Amino acid sequence: MKQVKYRNSASKILLLGTVFLFSLLNPVLAQEETATPEAVATEAAAAGGDVTKGEALFKSLCAACHKRYKKMTGPALFGVTERRDTEWLYSWIKNSSAMIASGDADAIAIYEEYNKTAMNSFPQLTNTDIDNILAYVMVPKAAPKTPVGTASTAVSPDSGSGVSTNLILLALGLIFLMLVGVLFLVNRTLRNFAAANNIELPEEEHRKPIWQSFVENQFLILVTAIFVLLASGYFVYGYFMQVGVDQGYQPIQPIHYSHKIHAGDNKIECKYCHSSARVSKHSGIPSLNVCMNCHKSISEVAEETATEDYSKAFYDKEIQKLYKAVGWDEGSQSYTGDTEPVKWVRIHNLPDFAYFNHSQHVSVAGVECQKCHGPVEEMEVMYQHAPLTMGWCINCHRETNVKVEGNEYYAKIHEELSKKYGVDKLTAAQMGGLECGKCHY
Amino acid sequence: MLSIVSCKKDSKPNYQYMPNMYESLGYETYGEYNVFGETGQEAQLPAPGSIPRGWMPYDYENSTTGYQLAKDSLKNPIRYTKANQESGKELYNIYCAICHGEKGDGKGTLVKREKILGVPSYDDIGRAITQGSIYHVMYYGINSMGSYASQTSEHERWQIVQYVQKLKADLEGKTPRVDTGVALSTEVVKVSNETTEENHDNAHH
């Protein structure tokens, strides 16, 4: 955590520096930036395609395998009209496998180059559609935006407020000191005044110190002793009761995986990654091939994903850690076979003498993951939400009704037991959820 | 007590009474032990050639020809019942809907947020998916889509196939297939839901 913040602040300083530099160059840059889109538009118009229509088509049909400036499953498409003539592209896009079958040399070459991955055919596209896509594809890469306006406005009030609170505190402290000084002076002046006017100030009579009278009073001593014993007993009990309870445990993981981004912002189901929670005792740590289901396409985070605490560069570096562990070579878009295990730190850990089964709770009882694991979709760094003590388990078993709907297995026993207890709905406890042997064996 | 508890560092686990009752003698899932060779990783792949109970071999190879063959000839062995469709829907919404969308139109959350692009709708005529091709793609993955063999069992994948076909029929405005009548005694797949088999070719990353 600390490391992260340090890195972040360093990057902030860098950012501020560049912002300052760029603000000097701003007039020049601004002109350039306004110039480029126009140039692009005219260029595209010359090529004879509608960039916006092309963008929509590209994103829905092509983007699964192609990026404009980066190799993916298929080649990077920027500059494709310079590499091939338009007629060739028309027939290739509409039916690539027919072209390969017909023995077109270029077609066979590209098919071989990309490990014989067949490109889908798109018979639904007209030549105009393809023109639009090509126009979009040929738009040159925009220079990375420097967040001039946002950064300067975002940073300055932050530092400003920090300074002002400190100033206020300092001023208050000074005022307090002055008041003390003034009181002292007033006291002295008054005493001088009294002396000058021959007024005798009443002498303070000597009294027995309070601790002495306390020690002499045996009843008070007894009461105090009892109180001190009770109080320390309370604290010692409290300390002993929290031994072995890891609520709030939040270790630093080898890869900064944010549940907030995955489960919160992108609303990916918990069971997508923790698929074994449905069918087995353990809610498994996903193997890295599950990460790669998405991260094969997502090699860097979007600008909006970065927060104040964690920059885009930081998140991108974490994705690189994944690629290193799984042995994914971004350049050739293939696995190198050179893998290393990611040593995740286990957070939720029941002692060996307690049995817990995920599938029983997730699939049979239909308990939400959040009931025990807390608001995971809001956790940037995962921590243990529940105490995972026996009292906590038992409490839930006493309060929760057994989910019998659509489960024939429970129909008969539910009928018998609910008659025995005289209730409509059985709790997990009445079904035997408090028996020692159910969890301890 | 608060002050004592707050002294505890959250990045370190707490003290335990009698750790020898807490820590398992047997090897724990995902543990690290010397006995497991260089990496010490308890999480191992099954020995080469081992077969999980209920596992059926999948004969179509991971290539363009294999895909074409599966697309033309592979058939769903389960009956198209309401119950199978419901299970398929549940699984689909966990594993597929995030990209393919709950309606199968290729507009899932990740696509709408422009994280992953180019997800086709199931009624895409260029692809013209069939039950065999749906299963084949789930088993091996295709292009940017990864394999889902490590997250689902064979039986579950066929349930998803049924549901995807239903979504495709809905998109095309047709009536989805539903099997009625007596169950055939020669039902091919009797795979238990308990075992999620590993796909040896793809899942070892």
Write down the CATH class of the domain at 2-137 in chain A: Mainly Alpha
**Major β-sheet strand ordering of chain A:** 1-2
Provide mean pLDDT of chain B, rounded.
81
Biggest sheet character of chain A? 2 strands, antiparallel
Q: Which range does the strand content of chain A fall in?
A: under 5%
Which regions of chain B have little confidence, pLDDT < 50, spanning 5+ residues?
Answer: 1-7, 185-205
Q: Which band does the percent of strand residues of chain B land in?
A: under 5%
Structural class of chain A: mainly alpha
Overall, the morphology of chain A is: flat
General shape of chain B: elongated
Oligomeric form of this entry? heterodimer
What would you give as the CATH superfamily of the domain at 2-137 in chain A? Cytochrome c-like domain
Radius of gyration of chain B: 22 Å
User: Remind me, CATH topology of the domain at 2-137 in chain A?
Assistant: Cytochrome Bc1 Complex, Chain D, domain 2
Please name the CATH architecture of the domain at 2-137 in chain A: Orthogonal Bundle
CATH topology of the domain at 64-197 in chain B: Cytochrome Bc1 Complex, Chain D, domain 2
What does this structure look like?
The complex is a heterodimer of chains A (441) and B (205). Chain A has 441 residues and is mostly helical. Among the domains of chain A are: 2-137, Cytochrome Bc1 Complex, Chain D, domain 2, CATH 1.10.760.10; 157-200; 218-245; 389-441, no CATH class. Chain A contains 20 helices and 2 strands. A two-stranded antiparallel ribbon of chain A has the order 1-2. In chain A, helix 1 packs antiparallel against helix 8 and helix 2 packs across helix 7. In chain A, 16% of the residues are buried. The model of chain A is unreliable at 1-46 and 147-160 (pLDDT under 50). Chain B has 205 residues and is mainly alpha-helical. Helices cover 35% and strands 0% of the residues of chain B. The longest helix of chain B is centred in the last third of the chain and has 19 residues, at 154-172. Chain B is elongated, with a radius of gyration of 22 Å. At the A-B interface, helix 2, helix 10 and helix 13 of A face helix 4 of B.
